[in-house]
Write a structure and sequence with these properties.
The chain is α/β, with parallel strands linked by helices. It is built from 16 helices and 9 strands. It is an enzyme of class 2 (transferase).
């Protein structure tokens, strides 16, 4: 029916419930006009709402109209505790846990590191502390029980950029994780995942010292160098690498971790001073030197990347003595991968089947 034919018909009888004023000022075509405008406004509002908020709907973690409940698999691992995880992986006579801390961008490095540990038959001691749910689920789907997440979840998009505040926030959690494991009564070895094992490191962890660590300086030391904390450098502190640490659950080791936590709180990240966790670790070592039994690992077995990858003469002279190689003294994900490739240490391309995680897409 057209609007013109509607005007030609007589108006219906007024409703006695309406006032004369309302009857005379509200013809049907006005209702139709109002309806059209209201509908259009509602549609525009809905389109704007969906356009603004739909990208975020899938990231909402709590159940809502737009999300489903967590699957039993997700619920199981989200509620998995550090105590449960440590107890699961430390089913060995030594009560030892090998810990790494990983966010999603470094899953390929995790896999590369794992292959080298499998070859030394110590992989069952490994516990991956996941810093995001993707890492937690990927590891536990393929290797159940070997990953745990300790809240809160960090922003993985910025955590892997060296020198950033996200990287500081990521690395600053390390001493608390290690202290928690020591408090549970376990020996703990920490490794960065840009490392590769060429031999079994445990025979080098002699005696019953509180803490074992490696030098991060490049000058060559004598093969029989002292296993004590080196003297401070120009900045008033030593230059020990926080990338590889082994500790017994002693009062001394716990004291060192607590001091490290304090140092990181006292020296937070800023734009002017783009700190990371290593200076804080060295200050903690220096300030507790008289109270903690420390052991410097042999340089030939645990060389820094600045020595192993840049001094070919030294590498030839110490051939057969190398145990753990650290791919540091270089910045950038792709550069680290290329260097490992160049030295035959990028194992995941040809040996992924040796890893408990298999090939990661």
């Amino acid at each position: 029916m057209s609007l013109s034919s509607l005007h030609q018909r007589p108006l219906p009888k007024p409703n006695t419930l309406l006032s004369p004023k309302s009857q005379s000022q509200t013809p049907p075509h006005t209702f139709l006009s109002l309806f059209n405008r209201t509908t259009i406004l509602l549609l525009i509002t809905l389109i704007i709402f969906l356009g603004v908020f739909s990208p975020y709907i899938t990231t909402i973690q709590t159940p809502s109209l737009f999300t489903s409940q967590n699957s039993p698999f997700e619920t199981k691992w989200k509620t998995y505790t550090l105590r449960e995880a440590v107890s699961f992986v430390a089913k060995n006579d030594t009560k030892t846990v090998i810990v790494c801390i990983v966010s999603e961008p470094y899953l390929s490095f995790l896999n590369n590191w794992l292959i080298s540990i499998v070859r030394q038959k110590h992989h069952e001691k490994v516990l991956v502390i996941a810093e995001d749910y993707k890492t937690l689920f990927v590891v536990n789907e393929k290797w159940p029980g070997h990953a745990v997440l300790v809240p809160p979840v960090i922003d993985t998009q910025v955590a892997h950029k060296f020198g950033s505040q996200g990287f500081f926030n990521f690395t600053a959690r390390r001493p608390q994780h290690l202290l928690n494991i020591l408090e549970l009564g376990y020996n703990v070895m920490y490794n960065d995942v840009d490392m590769v094992w060429l031999a079994d490191p445990f025979p080098y962890l002699k005696g019953n010292h509180d803490v074992y660590f490696m030098d991060d300086m490049t000058p060559v030391k004598p093969l029989d160098h002292p296993n004590v904390l080196p003297p401070p450098g120009k900045k008033g502190r030593t230059y020990i690498c926080s990338c590889m640490i082994y500790m017994h659950p002693t009062p001394g080791a716990k004291l060192l971790m607590k001091k490290w936590i304090e140092e990181l709180k006292d020296q937070p990240w800023s734009r002017a001073k783009k700190a990371n966790d290593q200076p804080g670790f060295n200050w903690a070592l220096n300030k507790t030197a008289g109270q903690v039994d420390m052991y410097l690992l042999p340089q030939a077995a645990f060389p820094t990347g600045g020595l192993y990858f840049k001094n070919k003469t030294w590498v030839k002279e110490t051939k057969g003595k190398h145990v753990i190689i650290h791919n540091n003294y270089i910045v950038g994900f792709e550069k680290k991968v290329k260097r490992f490739h160049d030295y035959g240490l990028w194992l995941v391309d040809d040996h992924a089947s040796e890893s408990p995680l298999g090939r990661l897409d």
